[in-house]
Design goal:
heterodimer, A: mainly beta, Immunoglobulin-like, eight-stranded antiparallel barrel, flat, disordered C terminus, B: mainly alpha, two-stranded antiparallel sheet, 2 strands, globular
Chain lengths: ~170, ~300
């Protein structure tokens, strides 16, 4: 127990004061930093991805615009991926989407574990908090070919799902 | 609490904690001698119930999670009523069937209400998007990890304390020899019903947390593989303590998956290990003997 962080060992302690302190620490963690409703308007988010190479790797471009169509610059965007058929089990390392030459467009490459239906998470930390999830069918492309990853209906599976079959 | 961690670590720890809650729900049933391949159904029920309350009715997240847990417990108890008297194998098959039934029902369930930014609610196979409680309150993923960790810690403390009580002894005795337990005056069926309800609540808590973390759920997420993994983690980690399922999760998600050791062979290694453990160490790595050894060791150190 002595090697554990204090707030964990306090939970197992016989001292009532320690337990109260641990409870207070947990409670403070649960208090949201702000209770105010969402501030600012929601951005419009476009996502286009193409698969290539082994893995396959998925090159994604995020198009971030305000409602009036003007591009949003200097955004902090993280791209993540999960497999709907096995949530929490395929840990794909999230990547930061970097700004491209075009205003409001950001690019990032995810290295996936297998072809199939993937949920791509676009997580925007600034200038507004936003998150969207898009389901894409990712296929393995043979050679140097680049195959667009098209949106799919959630739950849809194709014969290529997880089979590693590729296309030109 | 979790500030300063990179998004990958935050995501991994959040997933591991949520998966541990699901594994603990499978563990509770294994403790009373029942194996369930349908805990993903209650995970899904909790996810949908909590999502509906927080995003369609703007309920506070704690209330949404609480109602989700109650829904999971109630459904699990209702399922257990007619099936708990069955043999272990029949019960396992029944849970698998219920898991699939729940997924199919969720696939055909449409109920949406108007929200400021469009329609929100379950939309059949298209899933349930816009579970934005955390986004609207600017709760970061790292901050939410703190909440998830606290929930997991509270569950672990509660279970570990319960195991030292008469209830805990009765649960374990029921799982190891139900005839002997009955002769000791334990109402085996009632105790198993209680375990099923508690397991349903735990799985639903995991589901509610997952829905809010990802902001999006769909029926395909609640695949039988999710329930099978939960059982696998409990069996691999061990049934000697509530820390066992957590150990199983850390081993698979934290070691095999995250570090990409045995890349591409992970599921083969994990499945093979579960099979080996079932043959050579049926109650897992942290079984009763291992726990006893640790207790002995710590009491020797103290004295």
């Amino acid at each position: 127990m002595n090697s554990m962080p204090y707030w964990i060992s306090a939970c197992f302690s016989k001292s009532v004061q320690h337990k109260r302190l641990a409870f207070a620490l947990c409670l403070s963690a649960m208090l949201p930093p702000a209770f105010s409703a969402e501030s600012g308007e929601r951005p419009q988010i476009g996502l286009q991805c193409v698969a290539s190479g082994p893995g396959p790797s998925l090159d994604c471009v995020v198009d971030l615009q305000r409602k009036d169509g003007s591009p949003i610059e200097r955004a902090q965007i993280t791209l993540g991926a999960l497999m709907p058929s096995m949530p929490m089990a395929h840990t794909i390392k999230p990547v930061t989407a970097r700004p491209t030459n075009q205003a409001g467009k950001y690019q990032g490459t995810l290295l996936l574990e297998m072809p199939g239906v993937w949920s791509i998470e676009v997580d925007i930390a600034a200038p507004v908090r936003e998150k969207v999830v898009r389901n894409l069918m990712v296929e393995t492309c043979k050679g140097d070919a680049r195959c667009p990853a098209n949106p799919v209906k959630p739950g849809e599976k194709t014969p290529e799902h997880g089979s590693g079959k590729g296309k030109h | 609490m979790a500030n300063g961690l990179d998004p990958h670590t935050v995501g991994l720890l959040s997933n591991m904690s949520i998966m541990a809650l699901l594994a603990l729900s499978a563990y509770l049933l294994l403790l009373v001698g029942r194996i369930s391949f349908g805990q993903q159904a209650f995970f899904g029920v909790g996810a949908y119930a909590a999502g509906i309350l927080s995003s369609m009715f703007q309920a506070p997240i704690v209330l949404a999670l609480g109602v989700g847990m109650a829904a999971g417990a109630l459904l699990s108890w209702l399922l257990a009523l007619p099936t708990m008297a069955l043999s272990g194998l029949q019960y396992a098959v029944a849970t698998l069937a219920v898991g699939e039934l729940a997924r199919i029902i969720l696939s055909g369930w449409h109920w949406q209400v108007a929200a400021p930014h469009g329609w929100v609610g379950p939309d059949g196979i298209d899933g349930f998007r816009e579970i934005r409680w955390l986004l609207e309150r600017d709760v970061t993923p790292a901050h939410f990890l703190g909440w998830i960790a606290c929930a997991l810690l509270a569950v672990l403390v509660l279970l570990m304390r319960t195991e030292r009580t008469r209830l805990g002894v009765a649960l374990r005795m029921t799982g190891q020899d139900e005839t002997l337990a009955a002769t000791q005056g334990i109402d085996v069926i009632r105790l198993r019903l209680f375990a099923a309800a508690a397991a349903g609540a735990l799985a639903a808590l995991g589901g509610g947390l997952y829905a809010h973390r990802t902001t999006y759920i769909e029926p395909a997420l609640f695949d039988p593989m999710l329930g099978v993994h939960a059982v696998g983690y409990a069996l691999l980690g061990g049934l000697g303590s509530a820390l066992g399922p957590l150990l199983g999760v850390v081993f698979d998600l934290g070691l095999l998956d995250a570090t990409e050791v045995f890349h591409g062979w992970r599921m083969v290694i994990f499945g093979g290990l579960v099979a080996l453990f079932l043959r050579w160490r049926p109650r897992g790595l942290l079984d009763e003997r291992a726990v006893q050894w640790f207790v002995q060791l710590s009491s020797n150190k103290r004295s």
